[in-house]
Amino acid sequence: MTEPRSSLAASKRGGAAAPPDPWDPLVRLTHWAVAAGVLLNGLIDKPGGITHVWIGWAMGGLLALRIGWGFLGPVEARFSSFPLNPRAGLAHLRAVLLGRPGEHPSHNPAGAVMVYALWACLGLTVLTGLILTGGESPVTIAEQKAAVAAGDWSALAAAGDSAEDGPVKEVAGEVHGVVANLILILAAVHVAGVALESRALRRNLVRPMLIGRRRP
Question: Which of 9, 106, 107, 175 could link 76 by a cystine bridge, Cβ 3.0 to 4.6 Å?
Fold first, then answer.
């Protein structure tokens, strides 16, 4: 029986044959929703505004959902399919620069390093955001802002005098800003890496994350 041409090509490049439909709907949903949220909060929305807080909570929920899916989802979505291995990641980058990247059934080693870095930064951003808002829900914060706008400062005082910033909030604020900017930098590097690997593989790597198929 003849081996499929795609599998032969993959084996020659030193990687496993890639699956025809690698990304399930939930992976695609969380990927693009997080990307949209990062862009909105990082480049468009006003920091500290109620919309900013709503998006931050949504990012936390999406991150939790994706982490859970990393244990319960299909094989390609599971953490075991793309372990964190910086040495393998560097080797893969060298292969990409030489025009000889291998196929992988899930994230390639360099992509895996980027994924874990982005998730870690996103988690830290959400955590520091919660510290800055005192863990209050967006609904509660909106009510407090409305009360203050109406001249009722008692609502803010009842919430724990959140108008005063302590040392913890000052540090959280600094970390929040730095890590949020780092996410934007990592996202730009990620996009560049996808473009380079698409060229090296002569295959559009964005299409599977959009429609779940490598080819129309």
Answer: 106
- Nearest alpha-carbon partner for 107 in 89, 124, 87: 89
In whole angstroms, what separates CA 11 from the centre of its chain?
30
Q: How far apart are CA 38 and CA 2, in angstroms?
A: 46
Per-residue pLDDT tens for 160-206?
544 446 889 999 999 999 999 999 999 999 999 999 999 998 888 99
User: For residues 191 and 169, what is the distance between their CA atoms, to the nearest angstrom?
Assistant: 33
| Cα Rg of the chain (Å, integer) | 21
Model's pTM, two decimal places? 0.82
- What is the Cα–Cα distance from 212 to 30, expressed in whole angstroms? 13
Residue with tokens 């870690």, as numbered in its chain: 120
Q: What is the DSSP string of the chain?
A: -PPPHHHHHHHHTTSPPPPSS---HHHHHHHHHHHHHHHIIIIISPTTSHHHHHHHHHHHHHHHHHHHHHHHS-GGGSGGGS---HHHHHHHHHHHHTT-PPP-SSS-HHHHHHHHHHHHHHHHHHHHHHHHTTT--HHHHHHHHHHHHTT-THHHHHTT-TTS--HHHHHHHHHHHHHHHHHHHHHHHHHHHHHHHHHHHTS-SHHHHHHS-S--
The Cα 42–Cα 58 span in angstroms is: 14
Give yes or no for a contact between 205 and 194, defined as CB atoms under 8 angstroms apart: yes
